[in-house]
Design goal:
The protein is of the alpha+beta class. It is built from 2 helices and 4 strands, in the order E-H-E-E-H-E. The protein binds iron/sulfur cluster (SF4).
Length: 62
């Protein structure tokens, strides 16, 4: 499973990083980014939860 953060949509709310810090972290632009590619199976549920919770639907499949 792979995910990316659409940098134009991310509003830096931090929810994804709170929900799944193993997969999401801040980048140098102050936006969230995916830090593991592909996403390890054990983090897929949390990553999907973060994806579903993103208020701007910025987390998408590439
Ligand atoms: S939840 Fe969405 S808007 Fe918030 S930091 Fe993560 S990617 Fe950006």
């Amino acid at each position: 499973m792979r995910l990316i953060v659409d940098q134009d949509l991310c509003i830096s709310c931090g929810l994804c990083i709170d929900t799944c810090p193993e997969v999401f972290d801040w980048n140098d632009d102050g936006k969230a980014d995916v830090i593991v590619d592909p996403i390890p199976e054990e983090f897929e549920d949390a990553a999907n939860e973060a994806k579903d919770g993103c208020p701007t639907e910025a987390i998408v499949e590439p």
